[in-house]
Amino acid sequence: MSQAVRVVWDDALISYDFGPGHPLAPIRVELTMALARGLGVLDAVEITGCAPATDEELALVHNRDYIDGVKGVSATGRPNLRWGLGTPDNPAFAGVHEASALVAGATLEAARAVWTGETEHALNVAGGLHHAMPFSASGFCVYNDPAIAIAWLLAQGATKVAYVDVDVHHGDGVQAAFYDDPRVLTISLHESPTTLFPGTGFPRETGAEGTAVNVALPAGCGDGGWLRAFHAVVPPLLREFAPDVLVTQQGCDSHALDPLAHLMLSLDGQRAAYAELHRLAHETAGGRWIATGGGGYELVQVVPRAWTHLIAEAAGSPVDPATHTPQDWRDLVKQRTGETAPLTMTDGRHPAYQDIARGYDPADAIDRAILACRNAVFPFHGLDPMP
């Protein structure tokens, strides 16, 4: 199904590092790239480098005073709470501007390659920093690389861009950047804001002409319920919107083992979502697909396997879930983290879901979340909200 596929990578991307003990540890992307390489997944893609985003590119989303403020923190390493740097979530560190601009530049390179037709799909697993706001850092995110890439695509002439965010946390920064812009459809599937940061992402947040879409799922939601919600909302909206490009944020912190949230997906359920987003990119966006990483804080058991599956899916060569992880990779995991690596590329689950068109249960919290979302936005798009 896929043609040319690029992975944007530079070893310097691991310099986006808030320090020891911070949940967003760069080892997660190091181990991802090592696992993808060890399984031969990277043999099926083109690896390309990137340059830091320029101030002009960052300013597509971020206020210039904020960019200057980040540069000031970057030069000294000293906190500046005016810009949200120096908090437990967003510690200040020397070089923060350069590291953050490189992450944004990697996602911009992915966007450029797809928009110019040099490749069909492009990925930046180090990206997906979806909480950053125009005037401040937030939620481990300094510059909002998905929003910057979307703004760049619009500046290049894209008339409609769809953004689907499967991170367990609401994609608040991207939604905020385009809340009043009907050219951008933002869809976020996340744990309910009543139980998880950032406290936004209610269905009533509908944006311009129903183009902000929020599926707020109850804590404890697993593969079947999550996939039911995804299929009840995402495909019909993407088909109706018919974007020029599909941008996705692939945070894998919806996994049951993630320490910062309360959804219960398996690696196998996440893999099913990757396959469906890939299919929808071809069906609704002419195959133009830009994917980023995002959240994911189980650094050994989840993130490397999840995003290796993502790369393999984008490349059109999915990894058999029964595949054993390479011994060299397991040795690297032990050496770098002291942990025992997973032996295979599966959690041993076989996710299934029942389409909501076959029946709606008003007593079920997941079905109520689905219908709340559909009631809020489907009429804007000429779609019937009732199953």
TrEMBL record:
Pathway: Ketone degradation; acetoin degradation. Pfam families: Hist_deacetyl. It comes from the Bacteria. InterPro entries: AcuC, HDACs, His_deacetylse_dom, His_deacetylse_dom_sf, Ureohydrolase_dom_sf. One of its GO terms (molecular function) is histone deacetylase activity. The keyword Signal does not apply. Residues 22-312 form the Histone deacetylase domain. GO terms for biological process: acetoin catabolic process; epigenetic regulation of gene expression. The keyword Transmembrane helix does not apply. Keywords: Acetoin catabolism. Belongs to the histone deacetylase family. This is Acetoin utilization protein AcuC.
